[in-house]
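Holo prediction — phosphoric acid mono(formamide)ester.
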Amino acid sequence: MNQFISVKDVSNIDSLVQKALDYKANPFKDKTLGTNKRIGCLFLNPSMRTRLSTQIAAQNLGMEAIVFNVGQEGWALEFGEDAIMNGNTVEHVKEAAPIMGKYFDILAIRTFPSLKSREEDYSELYINQFIKYAGIPVVSMESATLHPLQSFADLITIKEVFKEARKPKVVLTWAPHVKPLPQCVANSFAQWMNAWGGADFVVTHPEGYELDGQFTKGATITHNQDEALKDADFIYVKNWSSYQDYGKILSNDQSWMLTNEKLKQTNNAKVMHCLPVRRNLELGGDVLDSANSIVTHEAGNRVWAAQAVLSEILSKM
Ligand code: CP
């Protein structure tokens, strides 16, 4: 592996999951793999889990991790190819990225979408500019359209928790929210579920919240949440803004919020969410406080997901 931008960078999903679980069982087994190597973790947007889990993962492999909150502490970056920089941007990615490439061995980046231009966001302009100009392996810590470290941790969690000799039914359900959120987590989860192929995968959302078909192709898609939840083994709860009417909130229908009452129609489903979650808006507090919630377990697995990915990249250096 020489970059980690999406599931397409993974040659064998099941063996990468096993690698992550091996690290979970023995976190320091490769504690010298990253000796004298440095990862730069660039955040253009806020984070808790991704930042901490990636730092811990790097340290478990003997790497030094340097975090740079570009969005708060750095010069405002310009990404436009022929931009005349007479506005608020101070430094072009064409200078910044190769400098990062000289300071670090791996570059990890978080860069959210603007939710203003679908064309620009779905071109992944920002992360692609870093890939083009840094000259070192790039790891996505959430880009404009995908969050692969999250989805990988989600898959690890499903495979770890589900012990039956059949395919689990996994449901991705839209949830209400007051802010327009990116489609990244939902896109990425759908992409990983479909690429893995080990689940009966269902996506449910109100009309107008259809995700980009390149990620959901292969899933069953329904606007009937109750029908989707029936006999579910896992429910992945997430809000996203509209892809069609790009970046807009089309519904705030609270009847879509998952509650313990709704869980009764499932197969005692385990409930997942990438976090942070707004209680009693996006997901019922009764569910989060119940034994069905595995959200903190899932967040714990972010370390092993990041460690397996960094290990794969380090082994090819
Ligand atoms: N799930 C996730 O990426 O969390 P953070 O935004 O806190 O990193």
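READOUT: The pocket of phosphoric acid mono(formamide)ester is lined by residues 47-50, 142, 150, 274-275 (CB under 6 Å).
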